[in-house]
């Protein structure tokens, strides 16, 4: 529509002719007695004019458009006559409408071309025509949105008050009308999405544009934008695809539309529970989740079963469907747990819901001495922490509607807490304010209908388990509308639509850098670029970076160097040397700071805090308003980038309270990992980013890397992923994600050996080569718990070594549903793993994966990772060991040496006449296993305050010798030499006894190890012992036999080959 075309001109001429005819006759009305005859004559003239002009010069589209106008006056297009007679009132209205259409045609041309003055003038004169389509069928808003006239879009919406969801019409030939015309039924949002005008797309959605509305060919605005990467990315970030179904496909319809199309129920949710005394959510077992899911799938005319008995659990547990509450042990609140379904109530159960929020932090919040299950109303009183609040009717509607429209988040002002602006994360069911001083959890509970009155019930907390109720479902609402049980003013409450679908929802989609706002109304942001090109008041240069120091001197020139040298000479120890620039550098001043890295986390953090404080206070005293920091300490100093970023950001936040200004962290473009760390600490919208984006922290331990990640264990990439038999949820999650191959392999292995310490399966669909399912049980005794974690780590490491793997992904074992002492579990895991990496000199990558909802656990892992004692492991190998550059581990001991004579003497004394000759004695130099044995030995000595090491014998077939020399006495040898005194690895001080297990090879040769064994605290054993009794390290026959249960408890020092 670049210019006015012939079709448009013909339409205007036809309309103008009718206007002229009416105007010429209208003045005669009332002056003559035969007024009705004049009106009839005028009617005939208009009919004749329209027939002649329409048939001769108008296209079918223009004829239909004009017919649509005349239809209001009972014009019959088929017979080409008005079916009722004109009146004075009819003629006046017709003249007015025709004059309006003439002005409208010009306005459309102006809107298409972006002529603001003509469009604005038209809206002022004809405000009622703002949503009227042109003869092309398109609206004013559609035209300006299509052609990217953003100012006119804003004017039409904000000043003109046009409907953002008005749809185009079709004036094509009636016989040729086809659904193939995509413009028909489209809205302004369709056009903006199709053209890729992201700014207009965001603006229209901010003002209520429906992104699920369909045009004549069933396309939504989202469909129209899929060919434009920027539009596709926007909707992918804005909308929630799924909860549990593992899909990232952008949804194409609202939830109500989705369930209207499908007869079967859709399962897409997580069932979770939170003990009233804990701030963590745990996932129900698959069986319990299935039972909960089925309990809410009921017909609207059926009575609901309001309580479920979880008979499969160890304790008696009942779940109230009314309260979403799990009850244990006499219904005491401290023994109860809150229940929630993280997903849509409409999608999963076709029922409407009451939303509730629970504060876990608030500046003035108070907490009751003991837990309570009381549900509170949103009243302006002091906030009670760890208690659920019912959302009021208006806020509840906003949350229901946001879920219906698949939103990932929604921001609402909560008037009962001083109109605080709160962002609700509808994916993770959490909320917080922008300053992260207010936060908590979100859930919904079902709405119910009384079976007696057939009316919706408003307060679940007043219902009892014996009340006859059913769910307030979509099918009930349909029937209630037909029966007039729902007032007309409440219809929108259930359709979850309104003229402005986001009314009262604060939707900020503006383009801006990633930043976090504070009370000072200033910002912290992180950018990638060149520090020397930043146009801030101040740039900061650290003495630790010689490269950056010389770079700024080169750019600043001789004057900068002279000024710096002079100030440095005056006082070399001043914390900040401030040098004004002379225009050669983009900033107004350069701050030189004296800072050096430190591998002690506490000292590192303290030095960064002092640096930030000194810089900001100096800038404030010099009236500067913006500072650019480099990523100080994130170079090649061995400092943790995560710790550095966290410390910088937290200290800046603290300083901004007293000294508001703009702070930028400028990261080199070749350091994306550092950029990510700072970005993570700053965040884009507070807690939402924390919940939806995996966080990580890592440190180097020698050549190894220990990393903490907030994420999903089934999504990790490693050589081996660890599972535990103590967590049914974890085991099933791994097997479910890994697939049928892994499930079959696990079941086969478990059936063959149900008492196995470890079951190894392929990786299946997971990004790993193997999955290790380890037998481990939690314990409330701190000492036993620590030792069990130590044993677990050792078993993992030994089996990982035996497979030749170098990367492991650990879940946060014991920190979930078992409620173990998290600090003990985490500290032991981190300490033991770090010690093993150091003592064995392993260049591994070990990842500890913490579920996103376990924020306290994640924080504990990070704390322990950074606060470990950095005391080096200073072990030395025996002086008898030979140097070797070829990684050999077997060395023949020369017969003339004292070493040989000592081993031979002990063997002869114990064996007597049970052997003829010693063929060879070999020394085993496996440094990796020797170091771990010595580390274990040190721990035994610290705990028992005595040396419990013994030199014992272990006979075995030749086939087992290589495995023992390479992987030591791991638990795969448990029970091989008997089980009479426990199912472990057997040793004896009597070589003649061990001789019974040293089977001869084809040459008649037999093999026996001389081992160093830590017996620790020992106890009489029996065949029922699958592991050492609590409080003991080994079992014994009371004489010469000792049984160990830990891989690092023995070291194969010599191998005797004899006949």
UniProtKB/TrEMBL annotation:
PROSITE patterns, A to Z: ANK_REP_REGION (PS50297), ANK_REPEAT (PS50088), MACRO (PS51154), PARP_CATALYTIC (PS51059)
Record EC number: 2.4.2.-
Subcellular location: Nucleus
ANK repeats: 184-216
Record's GO cellular component terms: cytoplasm; nucleus
Alphabetical GO biological process terms: negative regulation of gene expression
Presence of the UniProt keyword Cell membrane in the record: no
Domain (PARP catalytic): residue spans on this chain: 877-1059
First-level EC class: transferase
Source superkingdom: Eukaryota
Keywords assigned: ANK repeat, Glycosyltransferase, NAD, Nucleus, Transferase
Cleavable signal peptide: none
PANTHER family in UniProt: PARP/ZINC FINGER CCCH TYPE DOMAIN CONTAINING PROTEIN (PTHR14453), POLY [ADP-RIBOSE] POLYMERASE (PTHR14453:SF67)
Protein name: Poly [ADP-ribose] polymerase
Natural source organism: Rotaria socialis
